[in-house]
Amino acid sequence: MHELSIAQNLLALCEKNAQENNATKITKIHIKIGRLSGVEAHYLQSAFSVLQPESVCEDAELVCHTQEVIVECDKCGFNGELVKNEFICPQCKSTNLKVTDGEDMYLMRLEMR
């Protein structure tokens, strides 16, 4: 379960941001998880809840936003969401696609005081 190490890194990043902004509490953490990132939001939530006590994130709510897969077609220029897990352009049926979003996990916003 690599979500535990991701949760540890997320908490460390939150602590760092809180210190840099002279905050004593983080109340809400917004993250974006790409469908192709390999991160399972419910496992991350569980790991986070185990690690958050006795930290600046002790009472923080972790809000996970799922990012769909966004592709760009090198053949026809289509730029948009892939509805299925078929890496075929929905317009021209080319397989010459580049993924532009949906592969990573990002810390999007922290609410702190």
TrEMBL record:
Record's keyword annotation contains Metal-binding: yes
Superkingdom of the organism of origin: Bacteria
Binding locations of Zn(2+): 73, 76, 89, 92
Keywords of this entry: Metal-binding, Nickel, Zinc
Keyword Metal-binding carried by entry: yes
InterPro entries tied to this protein: HypA/HybF
Positions with a binding annotation for Ni(2+): 2
Purpose of the protein: Involved in the maturation of [NiFe] hydrogenases. Required for nickel insertion into the metal center of the hydrogenase.
PANTHER family, alphabetized: HYDROGENASE MATURATION FACTOR HYPA (PTHR34535)
Family: Belongs to the HypA/HybF family.
Official protein name in the record: Hydrogenase maturation factor HypA
Species in which this protein is naturally found: Campylobacter majalis
Taxonomic lineage of the native organism: Bacteria, Pseudomonadati, Campylobacterota, Epsilonproteobacteria, Campylobacterales
